[in-house]
Amino acid sequence: MLKNSKSVITSEDSREFGYTSAGREAAMSEKAISALNTSLIKSIKKGDVYVNHISTSRSGMSRAFSFYVLSKDGLICINREIGSVLGLDSAKNGRGLNVVGCGMDMVFATLYSFFKNIGLKNYPHLANNYKLI
User: Fold this and answer.
1) Where are the beta strands (DSSP E) in the chain?
2) pLDDT, tens digit, 9 for 90 and up, residues 82-117
3) Closest residue by Cα to residue 70 from 127, 133, 117
4) Residue 87 in contact with residue 129, Cβ under 8 Å?
5) Distance from C-alpha of 50 to C-alpha of 90, rounded to nearest angstrom
6) pTM above 0.85, yes or no
7) First vs last Cα of the chain: how many Å apart?
8) What's the gap between Cα 122 and its chain centre?
């Protein structure tokens, strides 16, 4: 259990609560999921997800993307939420998330996993309904 909803799980917490690395990652994912507000989820359900392809590695095995949701306040970056839920690292240049893989639509794969993990229904359709900017 987390000490409170705003706490960050540290290595001391993991020893105190008996987390393994997998347990710590699961607790961090749960915290990130609970941090998603309802207006953000409503925007996602409407299909207002925008993706910026920043770069591709020389080998073609990884890409850097930034993910945004259009809300009434404008574009909101959701890289932190996606990275927390899926355990993705930020790109080397500090812009976006580093997504590893090739041979398929990596934006779809990332959004599909994210939507499935946060418990959205109809996630295959939602993951396919994004716009590149």
Assistant:
1) 49-56, 62-71, 74-77, 97-100, 130-132
2) 888 888 888 887 789 999 988 889 999 999 998 888
3) 133
4) no
5) 18
6) no
7) 39
8) 17
